[in-house]
Design a protein that fits this description.
The complex is a heterotrimer of chains A (640), B (207) and C (336). With 640 residues, chain A is mostly helical. Chain A has 20 helices and two strands. Chain A has a single domain, classed as Cytochrome c oxidase-like, subunit I domain (Cytochrome C Oxidase, Chain A). The chains are: A mainly alpha (640), B mainly alpha (207), C alpha+beta (336). Chain B: It is a multi-pass membrane protein.
């Protein structure tokens, strides 16, 4: 059924787009629609918005899965979602939240904001940027299709072998996991490369490395992590695909393979992955704390070095996820000490945030509220992180609810808080509208209280002997009360998120436009109109120090000093190829999942055809002339 | 400033053409990063292979299997192709399109020769009972060497595609970075092969 | 000062809560009230790390609360904000102090890691038990209990006050062997043998868990650890090693049914699907590791194992007539 459906859609696409002659007029009209514009855009701001919104969509799905799990665990011996169904929920919750919600939403903010912060008109590879988004999108869709065609993956987001092998997970679920993530992962690698090249090559005159805003710095380090951490995942998934789909024996102990190899490969990726999603959160918080304290970031240089150090150490600690595997006391000790070392640069960051606020003038707007909530929450997550780095103690914590509590303090209390903070902070820059302060505050307080209610008790659940990933627990084992409290807390987070969605709808409907600089900002993105014109900067700005825009405002200037005369601006053309190229991989992925080599071959061939079309096409973009820029600027003024 | 060069312009002065435009600079930088990622990818495959190479499950061992003469010949072809690829880039930067096309052609032919030898080798192994599914050793061997082979195949297709484009458009500022990247890629494949030759074949013979 | 008072109130409430919570868990399962030497050593490190971390937390929260109150924007007041770059002295302070704190934590960490890893017995007669994890049950094979070798399942009996050495084997997927009240966990990895030691200071009953996701029945892969006094343990071993002979007609009939229907998995040295050894089933306290040991539950389990434990690999025994079922259960319950 699904096979047929996909073939049908593919033929339609092929017929409609490749022939073009079938109905030229229709095609012409389609090309002028907004939908076509978004589907083919290579504009980093639009791609960023698509990343952010589709990430949020997946966040809602992942949240729903979490709600179901907490419903099941609210009382002992519940039978709402048991056994395999529960395992599917927990696997998809983790996988969705990490790969389809946290990463894309971060990529979204990086995409929109980072080029603006360095005064660039675009990213280094606009086409690749679009390709990265569509790979993520189709990979995510493929992964979630598993719910409808063949069952969702059920071996945990870590997908440990040998549970993830055919003999023990015979359904299609893990195949969806392997191929969906593989496609998404290629997209992430591309984004990483793109962001690094952008930051190195595309900075505006005067924007030296040590004048870059903190968010740009963290994006830079995160991108470096992406480039070196995604390949181990690619290899792990490739080998797992070989084992599952082509009968290889890499992880099969009965054929001489080793399930521990999977754990190594997964965590060589997996630990840096944690920093991939947390470093940009640090960046967002640094921007917000500095802006709303009206004060320069305290210890900027040491913050930069701390970020780089965290990124570097992130690659040397993966074995702390494997303390109980039995690798020996020597290896456990080395990795324990390396892990503890990460606490030092992280501590530097926390104290620098505190001292940024010290002596400042703190304005409690919604973004700042999130930042203020983030500091103690993240500190708790960091503290339990240090506790986990002690191997003998970890023998108790490992795979218990203590770990669940720890990483939710880091990933929700860190990343999710930062994403919400970033959303409230940059919404005017992204959409040209302000999000409601009132709703934002409701959102924060409900979510904050709900979050702590849900996850704080889980530390104790773990220590009281509750393993993670269990669909139920026995009555009279001292676990009932805390589980109930934990489940009730979910209500707060759910309501908070609903308030956020209401605020978004309200802003979308509102006619009131946001000012260019609503927060009295410090960095370059606030020096240009909201929403940002497609060319970003009519004239590239000249940067004279850190917090460039703030400096100009202090000097009494309303705008940045231009670094170039007004001239014609070169823009890349939109392209439908990224979407179709990714669609081809999606089809191929589906083919591999259902073991239909024909569909797989069609998909791959289609992708290669698209690559050749791209390689042979000659489209050098277009230019926006100064008259047009002046015209649109004047038109804006008239409107205002 | 480099930005006023149009991509379809033909360079008139010899030099490092690949970095003459901002697009070119971006591409070169991005591609180096990509090669960094590829290095990690192969490192993971090497690690897996080294961990599993003795899990033969009763099948032929590395000592029994590998034929250094054949592999040596393949190595010779691939290393030489790296040299011809350098010659091609050299010709490009001297704006000698004809010589560049010639050396690219030689590179492709050497790559094909390598690929044929590799396929022959694989067929031979399968007859010996060393297959992708026969043991963890087999799986990890084909995963590593096969991934390299896939890279060679892709490289050959890529270079052929670029030769066609150059024949049509001539050597422009748009083509120069593309050609340069394909050559970087080809050298990278070569370096990986050097590691395969030592860590897989030589080490396999030693024990 | 107001802020400091408030802070102390918050902190003392927090400490009180933590104390209350620590006693909340079930002592059979609680890692915070350990009953074994390894658990004690682990709790020591947990406590040390919590104390250090709470110290750090107190400092952070004090500064945090002070800053939020002291430097919040007040209505109608505009303050001149000095744009400071940072302070090298402070940076050094909050780099060096954490390094010292971590060193204080790292030394005992490494020591204990090595101490716990010494899992080879020093004497020949130390009790050695081979633990094997299966989906979703545990097998315990005593290698040298009073010179005897025998198997049990789901119940691990050990002499109290004595170090017992475990060899952990895996056959299918990953599991993790965890008795929170006695010691931390170690993974069950197919294709490799792990070792650990465990002891219980006092006789008692402790709850064991599988801590690594192993499939649909993971949540119910429980087992129990019984620590006995030396005498009780010897008696138990004697009982386990004395073969059971069916006495009544019902038991003998039941044995026949057992031999026809069950032994291919339950008493076969090389079964396709391995089931637990049932030769001393009558002595167990649980069925399938989770149900209490009575006939109603036994019937429930036999007739539909998956309704009790999702993913259980045992087939349904629902094709016997009432009399046959009764005899089979009689045989099983009496096999002591």
């Amino acid at each position: 059924m699904g096979t047929l459906l996909i073939l049908l859609v593919l033929t339609l696409f092929l017929a409609a787009i490749l022939t073009g002659g079938y109905n030229k007029e229709f095609l012409l009209r389609a090309r002028q629609t907004k939908v076509w514009d978004w589907l083919t855009t290579v504009d980093h701001k639009k791609i960023g918005i698509m990343y952010f919104l589709s990430g949020f969509f997946f966040l809602l799905i992942g949240g729903l899965e979490a709600i179901f799990m907490r419903l099941q665990l609210a009382v002992p011996n519940n039978d709402l979602f048991t056994g395999d169904i529960f395992n599917q929920l927990l696997t998809m919750h983790g996988t969705t939240m990490i790969f389809l919600a946290a990463m894309p939403m971060i990529f979204g903010l990086i995409n929109v904001i980072m080029p603006l912060q360095i005064g660039a008109r675009d990213v280094a590879f606009p086409f690749l940027n679009s390709l990265g988004f569509w790979l993520f999108f189709w990979g995510g869709i493929l992964l979630n299709l598993s719910w409808f065609f063949g069952g969702a993956p059920n071996a945990g987001w870590t997908s440990y072998t040998s549970l993830a092998l055919n003999s023990y997970s015979p359904g299609l679920g893990v195949d969806y996991y392997v191929l969906g993530l593989q496609i998404t992962g290629i997209g992430s690698l591309m984004s990483g490369i793109n962001f690094i090249a952008t930051i190195i090559n595309m900075r505006t005159p005067g924007m030296t490395f040590l004048r870059m805003p903190m968010f740009t710095w963290t994006s830079f380090v995160t991108s470096a992590l992406l480039v070196f951490a995604m390949p181990p995942l690619t290899v792990a998934l490739l080998l797992l695909m070989f084992d599952r789909v082509f009968g290889a024996a890499i992880f099969d102990h009965a054929m001489g393979g080793s399930s521990v190899i999977w754990q190594h490969l997964f965590w060589i990726f997996g630990h840096p992955e944690v920093y991939i999603v947390i470093l940009p959160a640090f960046g967002i918080m640094s921007e917000i704390i500095s802006t709303f304290s009206k004060k320069r970031l305290f210890g900027y240089t040491s913050m930069v070095f701390a970020t780089v150090l965290i990124g570097f150490l992130g690659f040397m600690v993966w074995v702390h996820h494997m303390f109980t595997v039995g690798l020996g006391p020597m290896s456990n000790s080395i990795f324990a000490v390396a892990t503890m070392a990460i606490a030092v640069p992280t501590g530097i960051k926390v104290f620098n945030w505190l001292f940024t606020m010290w002596g400042g003038e703190i304005h409690f707007k919604t973004p700042m509220l999130w930042a203020v909530g983030f500091v103690p929450t993240f500190v708790i997550g960091g503290m339990t992180g240090v506790m986990l780095s002690v191997p003998p103690a970890d023998y108790q914590y490992q795979d218990s609810y203590f770990v669940v509590a720890h990483f939710h303090y880091v990933l929700v209390g860190g990343t999710a808080f930062a994403l919400f903070a970033g959303a409230y902070y940059w919404w005017p820059k992204m959409f040209g509208k302000m999000l409601s302060e009132k709703l934002g505050k409701w959102h924060f307080w409900l979510f904050f209280i709900g979050f702590h209610m849900t996850f704080f008790p889980q530390h104790f659940l773990g220590l009281f002997g509750m393993p993670r990933r269990v669909f139920t627990y026995q009555a009279n084992h001292g676990l009932e009360l805390l589980n109930l409290i934990s489940s009730i807390g979910v209500i707060g987070m759910t309501l908070g998120t609903i308030f956020f969605m209401v605020a978004v709808v309200q802003a979308a409907r509102s006619k009131e436009l946001a000012p260019a600089d609503p927060w009295d900002g410090r960095t370059l993105e606030w020096s240009i109109p909201s929403p940002v014109p497609e060319y970003n900067f009519a004239q590239l700005p000249l940067v004279r120090g850190a917090d460039a825009f703030w400096l100009e405002k202090q000097a009494g200037n309303k705008e940045m000093t231009p670094a170039e005369p007004l001239g014609s601006i070169h823009m890349p053309s939109g392209s439908y190829i990224p979407m179709l190229m990714s669609l081809g991989l999606f089809v191929a992925g589906y083919g591999f999942v259902v073991k239909s080599w024909i569909i797989g071959a069609i998909g791959i061939a289609f992708t290669f055809i698209m690559m050749y079309i791209r390689s042979f096409e000659q489209d050098f973009g277009y230019h926006i002339e100064p008259e047009e820029i002046n015209g649109s600027a004047k038109a804006k003024e008239v409107k205002a | 400033m480099a930005s006023h060069i149009h991509p379809t312009d033909r360079p008139t002065k010899p030099g490092h053409l690949e970095k003459a435009t901002l697009e070119g600079k971006n591409k070169v930088m991005g591609f180096w990063l990509f090669l960094g990622a590829e290095t990690v990818l192969f490192a993971c495959l090497f690690g897996t292979y080294l961990a599993l190479r003795n899990s033969t499950m009763g099948g032929p061992t590395t000592q029994e299997l590998y034929d250094l003469k054949l592999v040596g010949l393949a190595t010779f072809f691939l290393l030489t192709s790296s040299l011809t690829s350098v010659l091609a880039m050299n010709a490009m930067n001297r704006l000698n399109v004809r010589a560049m096309q010639f050396w690219l052609g030689v590179t492709v032919l050497l790559g094909l020769a390598f690929l044929i030898l590799e396929i022959y080798e694989f067929v031979h192994y399968v007859h010996e009972g060393h297959t992708f599914t026969s043991s963890a050793f087999g799986s990890s061997f084909y995963a590593l060497v096969g991934t390299h082979g896939a890279h060679v195949t892709f490289g050959i297709c890529w270079i052929i595609g670029l030769m066609i484009q150059t024949a049509r458009r001539g050597l422009t500022y748009e083509m120069a970075p593309k050609l340069f990247l394909s050559s970087l890629y080809w050298h990278f494949i070569d370096v990986v092969w050097v590691f395969i030759f030592t860590l897989v074949y030589l080490l396999g013979k030693v024990g | 000062m107001v802020s400091r008072q408030r802070l102390w109130r918050v902190l003392s409430v927090f400490a009180l809560m933590a104390l209350l919570l620590a006693g909340c868990g079930d002592p059979r399962l609680n890692a915070l009230t350990p009953k074994g030497t390894a658990g004690d050593m682990q709790l020591d490190l947990i406590t040390l790390s919590i104390l250090i971390m709470l110290g750090v937390f107190a400092v952070v929260i004090t500064i945090f609360v002070y800053v939020l109150i002291r430097y919040r924007k007040k209505k109608g007041v505009t303050r001149e904000v000095k744009q400071v770059h940072g302070s090298t002295l402070l940076e050094i302070v909050w780099t060096v102090i954490p390094i010292i704190l971590l060193a204080i934590l790292a030394v005992p960490t490494v020591q204990t890691t090595f101490k716990l890893a010494a899992a080879q017995p020093k004497t020949e007669d130390a009790l050695k038990i081979k633990v094997t994890g299966y989906q979703y049950w545990w097998e315990f094979e005593y290698l040298n209990a009073n010179g005897k070798r025998f198997k049990t399942a789901q119940e691990l009996h050990i002499p109290a006050g004595e170090k017992v050495y475990l060899e952990i084997h895996g056959k299918d997927v990953l599991h993790s062997f965890w008795v929170p009240a006695l010691a931390g966990k170690i993974d069950v990895v197919p294709g490799r043998v792990n070792t650990m030691w465990i002891d219980a200071k006092q006789p008692g009953k402790y709850q064991g868990k599988c801590a690594e996701l192993c499939g649909a029945g993971h949540a119910l892969m429980d087992f129990k650890v019984y620590a006995h006094s030396k005498g009780d343990f010897d008696n138990w071993v004697a009982q386990q090693t004395t073969p059971y002979k069916p006495q009544t007609v019902a038991e003998k009939e039941g044995e026949k049914i057992f031999k026809q229907n069950c032994i291919s998995c339950h008493a076969n040295p090389n079964p396709k699907i391995k089931g637990p050894d049932l030769s001393k089933f009558g002595t167990r306290e649980t069925i399938a590791g989770i149900l209490s040991h009575n006939e109603t539950n036994l019937k429930k389990w036999l007739e539909d194992p998956e309704s009790v434990k999702p993913g259980a690999r045992m087939p349904k025994i629902n094709y016997l007539n009432d009399q046959e079922m009764k005899n089979l259960m009689e045989y099983l319950m009496k096999s002591k």
